[in-house]
Design a protein that fits this description.
Layout lengths: L1 H45 L2 H42 L1
Helix pairs in contact: 1-2
Length: 91
């Protein structure tokens, strides 16, 4: 039993860290989405090749952060499932 409890404490710490990282990444994603919106608007109004390139770059940043947030959520969810499985062993 002692070993399971130690694993549960470690898992809870890791879940908390993942939640924090997920929240921070989601906030940064919002920032990048705003930048992308501005870059798209500039690209549409100016029709400049530089503005279009900037819009593509910011779009890539948004996609990268969306994947990052999804990966963090997936890792957290897997740990939560494992934690629930271990908790059932204790009862």
């Amino acid at each position: 039993m002692r070993r399971i409890e130690k694993r549960l404490f470690a898992m809870n710490d890791e879940i908390a860290a993942l939640r924090r990282d997920e929240r921070l990444a989601a906030e940064e994603l919002i920032f990048h989405q705003h930048l992308h919106d501005d870059a798209n608007r500039d690209a549409l109004t100016s029709d400049s090749p530089l503005d279009r390139a900037d819009a593509r770059e910011t779009g890539a940043d948004v996609a990268r952060f969306e994947r990052h947030v999804a990966e963090l959520a997936q890792r957290r969810e897997r740990l939560e499932v494992e934690r629930d499985r271990l908790l059932k062993k204790l009862t």
